Structure to design on (331 residues):
């Protein structure tokens, strides 16, 4: 079977081709799936997409009309897929329910440390042979109060690293994680966590209840010198409110690997274009803000696991099986 894979990064392509070799033919495209690119899938019963695909009702109908019967998403998140319409059209949908949580947790700490110690500013200076220390003072992580919002697999890994630094641990989630409790985490109301934490890291999924979980009110509760890290989903943070908080001198640092309006921006080279997103452009002007391009998951270990699971999902579809990754089963 020939499978069409959308949104394949250059470093990801050889891994996909190697995993699928001898089992299925796979054709990799750099373009992301949306209404404009959906017609390219005509004649392909199975397609694979990335988290930045836009599988709205229009795109799904084009896919179904072209003969697509299965969508294998190469990510844990699936808020970009209109599942109700997909089910109506008889499309099977699967995701990757699990991959290395260390990849994201470690990168969240990379952001936190880089922001705290002003690494970006320091690196830019030293490239110009400016070795002054002005404006580069950070704080010890040891002894900080670290708030972890979402203590699932990734949040737990982030907590273990925080414990290694010697921090006080606060957590917030719908259910308490016994492993985090063993590390000394105290679960508190969200308001208390925000008010007492020196560093807050987000590890919850994007759901209607968590959209703009960190809004203007939440930001106002945080310490003026606190660090905020988001390596989960952009929609968890009200970016306009974040800009206003930074404009007022609130927050000591922000590390973002995701952005709520990242579709159409992240994973592309826009360096020669005028970026019309005023909110993102303003955010980038703050010296204590570090934005990366949704790369927290991007390790060879995690990507390899994602591809292996995607291949298993395709095989399950062809065999008529379901698994924990199945969002809409084959009819």
């Amino acid at each position: 079977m020939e499978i069409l894979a959308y949104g394949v990064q250059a470093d990801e392509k050889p891994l996909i081709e190697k995993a699928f070799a001898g089992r299925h033919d796979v054709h990799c495209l750099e373009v992301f799936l949306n209404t404009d690119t959906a017609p390219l899938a005509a004649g392909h019963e199975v397609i694979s997409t990335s988290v930045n695909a836009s599988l709205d009702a229009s795109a799904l109908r084009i896919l179904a009309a072209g003969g697509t019967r299965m969508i294998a998403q190469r990510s844990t998140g699936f808020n970009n897929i209109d599942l109700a319409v997909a089910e109506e059209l008889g499309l099977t949908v699967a995701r990757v329910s699990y991959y290395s949580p260390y990849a994201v947790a470690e990168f969240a700490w990379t952001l936190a440390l880089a922001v705290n110690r002003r690494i970006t500013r320091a690196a830019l200076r030293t490239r110009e042979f400016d070795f002054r220390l002005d404006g580069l003072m950070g704080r010890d992580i040891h002894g900080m109060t670290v708030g972890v919002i979402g203590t699932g697999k990734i949040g737990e890994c982030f907590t273990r690293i925080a414990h290694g630094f010697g921090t006080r641990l606060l957590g917030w989630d719908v259910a308490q994680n016994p492993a985090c409790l063993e590390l000394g985490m105290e679960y508190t109301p969200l308001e208390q966590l925000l008010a007492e934490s020196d560093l807050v890291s987000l590890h919850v999924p994007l759901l209607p209840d968590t959209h703009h979980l960190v809004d203007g009110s939440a930001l106002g509760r945080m310490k003026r010198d606190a660090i905020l890290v988001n390596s989960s989903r952009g929609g968890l943070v009200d970016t306009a409110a974040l800009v206003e908080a930074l404009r007022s001198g609130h927050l000591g640092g922000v590390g973002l690997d995701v952005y709520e309006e990242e579709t159409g921006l992240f994973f592309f080279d826009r360096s020669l274009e005028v970026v019309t997103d005023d909110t993102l452009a303003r955010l980038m002007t703050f010296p204590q803000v570090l934005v990366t391009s949704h790369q927290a998951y991007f390790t060879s270990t995690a990507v390899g696991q994602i591809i292996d699971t995607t291949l298993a999902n395709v095989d399950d579809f062809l065999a008529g099986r379901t698994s924990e990754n199945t969002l809409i089963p084959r009819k």
